[in-house]
Amino acid sequence: MALVQAHCARREGRLKEHGQILLAHGGGGRMSRSLIEAEIAPRFGKGPLKGFPDAASLPDPDGPLVFTTDSFVVQPLEFPGGDIGKLAVHGTVNDICVCGGKPLWLSVGLILEEGLNISLLRRILDSLAAAADECGVTVVTGDTKVVARGQCDGLYINTSGIGRALPGFSLGPEMIRPGDAVLASGPLGDHGMAVLCAREAVLSGTGPMSDTGPVHRLVAAAADMAGAVRFMRDPTRGGVAAVVNEAVHGTPCGVALDEQNIPVSPATRSAAELLGLDILHVASEGRILLFCAPEACDPILTAWKAIPEGRNACRMGTVTADAGSVLLNTLAGGRRLVDMPQGELLPRIC
Amino acid sequence: MAQRIGVSAEGHGKMCLAVPMELTDVRTGGRGTARADGIVRDVDISLIDDPRTGEFVIVHAGFAIERLDRAEAEARIALFEDMARRVSTPEFAS
Amino acid sequence: MKYVDAFRDPAASRAVVSELASLAGKLRESGIRPAIMEVCGTHTMAIARNGIRDVLPPEVSLISGPGCPVCVTEPGYIDAAILAATRATVFTFGDMLNVPGSEDSLATARAAGADVHPCYSPSAALDFARANPARETVFLAIGFETTIAPVAALAAAAENGLPNFSMLTALKLVPPALAALVSDPAVHIDAFLCPAHVSAIIGSDAYAPFAGPGGRPCVIAGFEPLDILYGIRCILAQLADGQAFVENEYARVVKPEGNVKAQNLISRYMEPYDAAWRGIGVIPASGLRLRKQYGAMDAESRFGIRVEPGTPPTGCRCGDVLKGILNPPGCPLFDGRCTPENPVGPCMVSSEGACAAWHSYRRIAPAGKDA
Description:
Helix content of chain C: 25-40%
Strand content of chain C: 15-25%
Radius of gyration of chain A: 22 Å
Oligomer: heterotrimer
Largest sheet of chain A: 7 strands, mixed
CATH class of the largest domain in chain A: Alpha Beta
Largest sheet of chain C: 6 strands, mixed
Shape of chain A: globular
Strand content of chain A: 15-25%
Number of strands of chain C: 11
CATH architecture of the largest domain in chain A: Alpha-Beta Complex
Distance between the termini of chain C: 37 Å
CATH topology of the largest domain in chain A: Phosphoribosyl-aminoimidazole Synthetase, Chain A, domain 2
Structural class of chain A: alpha+beta
CATH class of the domain at 75-173 and 258-303 in chain C: Alpha Beta
Helix content of chain A: 25-40%
Number of helices of chain A: 9
CATH superfamily of the domain at 75-173 and 258-303 in chain C: HypD, alpha/beta domain 2
Distance between the termini of chain A: 43 Å
Radius of gyration of chain C: 21 Å
Number of domains of chain A: 2
């Protein structure tokens, strides 16, 4: 036993000694093994991942499943309010949640660039593990590859997630009806602006903080009114404008948003003003847009406001009978179209 | 690691957009620091004659292009507040 | 935000809108249907984004002017920029990326390997040049007076000790464009809503030639919704009284003489020339370029590149849109062959372009208002 420990310590020592990822860490040989043992096993090597089988054996979840996948290429890897590890958990977990699922299991695929700093990798893996714990999901399988310097930008992560469909929800854009309320669980656009400000090297100070976070508690809080909830989405890439346009596309409904009621935190708004961005196009990573029958609006807002991530929840619009049209009632008293964002407005935001 | 330039927003760069910010620091070489609601950034103040800490400037693409006259701004705000009050009084509605 | 929120107050907007209605009533009695040109692209965008047209009296029409720098940049400039990007690291405002050149755009050139980087501030180009002394660095300096002032500051900073930094310029001036517009018999404009931040540099006195007897009301307004509404109100009031003078409704920033320090810096580094405007043609003394003695900072002379006019796309009527002769839907390409995803003309590319603003914010506008 002592011998094994000493061996492991030597391997750890070797990683420390290099201080960075080498191509050989992805070669499938001793170096690969040492990376897995030193960095992956201590964080994720329990449950189905114990012993590192080639595939995870999972218990029968007894009911319909929800399954999703997402890849993360955000730059910089660490930004105010979060990092790529946290984001890789929240992105996938939240997709399961807004489809009315309870997330259970996660796969994690890492693509590392030769030369990646080991202590940065450790911070990101710690953060990923903590985020998974908070969401109640278990990392059950994974993979690590190393590519030559210049062939990826530090670190990319892919996560896939499996969840169990929660009873009571019957969600879909086709469920939306004129008169329904459109709710936001909190201030919008914080993630996109935080990442963008971190990239604009000259921007400093407190600045916007990413809202990257799990929405499972918000979905659970709305579950009491599950029958009245029509549709949920997390407004990530493309922001509110993309989600709302996609939701009513091809339906007999439209949406009228009220500029006065769109929740935006002060720093995010300042940054958007400075850079000339429309906040409705900017990504959030820990918020929900929820469409519900009008009578469910107040109960859901009350339930959301009782938990920290929903304390600034509000109603920001109403479903109309104006097919496919998404309008904003402006502060100036006029109306304008809320269009889908064009092109890649903010590249590598998640 | 790959060189990290150019991962910037492609949609921004509104050509004449500028926002009011408060100068919090004035340094030599035409550099300064300005803030607005939680945003703090370095700005070039070489286009401003005799900039002072505490003044508001209009920042365009990282450059302060002119100072904001607070007395003029307050006077205009007062005008709009007065107009707003008048629309909310009942006699206006009739 | 201080000095921003106060200029977006809904109750004050309602108050200004009701004044607009009563002024429009007066004008109606005199048979005047005012056509107001908002000269600046940032006004165009702000008007669209705030739904301003929706609250205007039906007889008032707003016409977008030529003040969108991307829109008036010749396709040949894009061709030259792409050429520069094969020899240097190029920094540009993001709006330029998708502008079609004669064949390629900077975005397609970048996908094919050209070294092109969008930036918020031109300082990024300067910082890059400092950090990479062995790399040629070019900033695509396009814009009106608002941007010309920072470009002059950039030249001052680069003049000494940055031999690897240069600029490819397409800098244009607002007053000569207004002069060309008012002398064009095809153009019918009753008043100018003058730019906010261009005016901060040039000053309100710069509009004197366009006002006065026989001239038009020239009202300078900020870019916030209340500033714009109040600016239009002042224009209607002048028209109702049969007057035409320069009125500065953005006095919190704009002075009669403008920013003299910036003007001095600009004239130290730059000289006027007869610039070509995409879709409009050559306007005398309407552009600024680096003076000969700063040739080392001029990417054209440095790399032996020449900005030719280039080939504008067939069927595109951006020129008429820029002169206010045509509203975007009047162009046969609008929303058919020409969309923001696949722009043919520059007015569809820049978010400040009249066509892009119309496409993105206005497809709902009640018919007839702007006809």
